[in-house]
Amino acid sequence: MRTQNELDVALDREYVIPVEIDQRGGLPVDKPEYDCIRNINQTGFRITARQLLHAIGCKNACLPMSEKDECLKSAYLFTKILNFDGQNLRFIDGIESDLQTVRSQEIGIGVTCLFANRFWQIPWDQLVQIPGPGKRFDYRGEANGVQAIFEAKGTKYLSKQASQIQSGLEKKEAHHNRGDNFNVELIISTSIGTGNSSPRIMLADPEFDSFEFAFGDLAKMFFRYRHYSRVMQFIGATKSARRLYLDSNKILKHNRIDFRQETTGHEFIQNLVEITIEDKIYLGRWFDKWIPENSKRYARIYDKYHDRSFAPFSIRVFQGVDIDVIKRLFSGELEDIDISTEIRKIRIGISEDLPIASLFPDGTALITELILN
After folding, report:
1. Measured CA angle at 230 (ends 229, 232), to 5 deg
2. Which residues of 266-280 are buried (b: 16+ CB within 10 A; e: fewer)?
3. Phi and psi for 95 in degrees, rounded to 5?
4. How high is the pLDDT of residue 321?
5. Of 169, 245, 157, the residue nearest 208 (C-alpha)
6. Are strands 82-83 and 128-129 parallel, antiparallel or unpaired?
7. Which of 46, 186, 203, 326 has the CA that lies 20 to 30 A from 280?
8. Is the peptide bond before 64 cis (omega within 30 degrees of 0)?
9. Tens digit of pLDDT for each residue in 161-196?
10. Degrees to nearest 5, angle at CA 70 with 160 and 123
11. pLDDT band for position 263 (cuts 50, 70, 90)
């Protein structure tokens, strides 16, 4: 890839990931909520690298977070370790096992959230990890009267998907033992390998009969706060992310909150940049590193990989959010943010030399730009 257009074509190539239904947990025949994926083992799951990068970057931000996590958790990392040129979405050859293991789980989370959003139209801000002790599924969501929970798994080995499904079964049994039952209770295991290996998604929803907070009166606002806490980390606004996270904990304790952003002047003027897309202003940050240079936590990985080139081109990634969304966050009007179900992409100008922006329903934007060396 030597031009921006070639990069965009690669990112928008549609991959069809084969889907299998695990025999230990076929889709329930008496639940119409599963009709939308009855033929998924024949059609597969269609996805682009651009969609996956955006989902990974946003949904895998750490909570609670620190500035030392932002580079490693940005979508930029995956432009360095995934191969976008082949027939199958896969890791680039030569990526070490320990690096692939953690990143495989993050890919699994991205795929699970995209899967849930596409087939059940669950709002993007409501696909959030469920807090609490004990064995429990990762994500929950509600749309059109359907309450759903999802267990997200990821591995580089097809052979390990069976054990991941088994782990999900144990969590599901723990839910039912607590009296938790939902319309959709799906385990989703994603395998992205290397070389000529084919990727695969494996689904399971075995029979087994409380997420007391997951769908209560305060749940929607709690999960929206948690989601936008990750969004703030996604764009590099760590102080705001931390504040939203702490306020979400107040909701968890059934306390009233009154969020007002106190760091706008310093954080957003000093650290973030503006990008205009479709006459809207997005605030965010360009990422051109994938490991924090001074982080003790990632020192070993940095020493090993910081000067290694995984691709014959340089890339930088912009991660931002609609300024109108930020204003609502500042004014404590999170409930007024309009969350759509549409995932879009648009070139930020008329020239093919300009990159394409990925726009997600929560107001976030991701731009992947080719930089000539």
Report:
1. 70
2. ebbeebbeebebeee
3. -75, 130
4. 94
5. 169
6. unpaired
7. 46
8. yes
9. 777 776 666 666 665 565 556 678 888 889 888 777
10. 70
11. very low
Compute φ and ψ for 58, nearest 5 degrees.
-80, -45
Phi-psi domain of 198 (left: phi exceeds 0; alpha: psi -120 through 50; beta: other): beta
Is the pTM of the predicted complex or chain greater than 0.90? no
Number of Cβ within 10 Å of residue 182's Cβ equals 19
Tokens of 23: 């025999």
What length is written for the chain? 373
Domain ranges of the chain: 4-371
Higher pLDDT, 119 or 86: 119
Q: What is the pLDDT of residues 201-246, one digit of tens each?
A: 988 875 533 455 567 667 788 888 889 999 998 998 888 888 888 8
Please enumerate in sequence order all residues whose Cβ is within 8 A of that of 214, keeping only pairs 6 or more positions apart, or say none: 130, 140, 147, 149
Distance CA 18, CA 189 (A): 12
Q: State the DSSP code for 194.
A: S
Q: What is the mean pLDDT of the chain?
A: 79
